[in-house]
């Protein structure tokens, strides 16, 4: 394996050396790290490896597959999977052969799990042919496009992603294509022209999802140290997406000509719609999330969704080391569970699982409080 290096793990933080991690959109497999694309807002800042520009493999492809399917949280045909979404771009020339090989090995096992692949790099017709040749996996290519023109923030030409989106959509037969319109940031890429361009690109996708910026301490520090314009006055644990910006996007979408893809607020909602399945995250319990969904998709999600039995949930929560606080019509509320264990329960139940110490405020769609009305303190 050309990328494999005995020194590949040297100097890496423990969380990067762990090649399988649970994230909201799926069990994430990251056996290759390192990326030269230099996007200023990249989550690689959070793992301390933004300076690692050359992709290096931490394991062989075979070892990566085994690590995934033997993971204690992996469930065949159920667990959504993400490949190489944390520390590299899967379509880089040095990385892509390994991505396609791992997809092939998973497909050969007869697995029908959702598999998400996120890229802003080049997708060629031959890549599409390889993806269409997969017979079992439900693969979604999420093509990241921001339209950011400040090359200090994003040196990669957004035209590359736009062309990849068109190529993938034209050639997709079995796999699906989602426009991953992100990050949209006030004052950076939210002009009327930017919004019109994003909506126009959605014509080349089976669904589109729009979202904001992770602006954690590490990313803010990078912006400040490089003299980049700071998009917000403060950092936040969740993605920042102001209320006014969302309203502008939805108004622009409502006034566009026919032909564009349906917009969604959540990645799993767009993926599910593109494949004609119910949302595996159970977002339909958060009713205000669904006010932009097609009636057909809303019905599909409602038919697959139900409030779980409290006794069953309590046992599941206890088994993974937490405590059940309660169950509402919107979510299971727990204490003592990290994100990985909450997402494992969420995907198994098809029902939202929230941490009691990190409340989800109504109508904010799980986003940061920045840019939204202040909620009065309880008296």
From TrEMBL:
It comes from the Bacteria. Residues 356-379 are annotated as: Disordered. This is Radical SAM protein. It comes from Saccharothrix xinjiangensis.
């Amino acid at each position: 394996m050309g990328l494999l290096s005995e020194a590949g793990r040297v100097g890496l933080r423990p969380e990067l050396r762990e090649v399988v991690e649970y994230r909201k959109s799926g069990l994430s497999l990251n056996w290759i790290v390192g990326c030269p694309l230099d996007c200023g807002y990249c989550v690689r800042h959070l793992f301390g490896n933004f300076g690692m520009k050359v992709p290096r493999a931490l394991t062989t492809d075979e070892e990566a597959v085994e690590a995934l399917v033997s993971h204690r949280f992996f469930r065949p045909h159920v667990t959504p999977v993400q490949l190489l979404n944390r520390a590299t771009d899967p379509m880089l020339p040095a990385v892509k052969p390994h991505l396609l090989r791992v997809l092939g090995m998973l497909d050969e096992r007869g697995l029908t799990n959702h598999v998400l692949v996120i890229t802003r790099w080049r997708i060629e017709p031959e890549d599409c042919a390889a993806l269409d040749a997969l017979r079992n996996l439900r693969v979604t290519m999420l093509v990241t496009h921001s339209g950011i023109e400040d090359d200090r923030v994003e040196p990669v030409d957004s035209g590359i992603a736009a062309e990849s989106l068109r190529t993938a959509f034209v050639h997709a037969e079995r796999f699906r294509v989602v426009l991953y319109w992100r990050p949209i940031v006030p004052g950076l890429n939210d002009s009327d022209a930017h919004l019109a361009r994003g909506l126009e690109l959605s014509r080349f996708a089976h669904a589109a999802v729009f979202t904001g910026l992770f602006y954690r301490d590490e990313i803010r520090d990078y912006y400040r140290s490089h003299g980049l314009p700071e998009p917000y006055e403060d950092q936040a644990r969740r993605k920042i997406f102001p209320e006014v910006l969302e309203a502008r996007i939805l108004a622009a979408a409502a006034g566009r000509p026919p032909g564009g893809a349906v917009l969604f607020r959540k990645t799993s909602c767009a993926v599910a719609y593109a494949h004609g399945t119910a949302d595996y995250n159970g977002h339909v319990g958060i009713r205000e999330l669904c006010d932009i969904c097609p009636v057909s998709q809303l019905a599909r999600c409602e038919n697959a969704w139900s409030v779980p039995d409290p006794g069953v949930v309590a046992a599941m929560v206890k088994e993974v080391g937490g405590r059940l606080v309660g169950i509402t019509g919107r979510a299971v509320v727990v204490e003592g569970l990290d994100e990985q264990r909450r997402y494992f329960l969420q995907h198994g139940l098809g029902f939202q699982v929230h941490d009691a110490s990190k409340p989800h405020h109504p109508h904010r769609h799980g986003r940061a409080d920045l840019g939204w009305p202040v909620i009065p303190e309880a008296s």
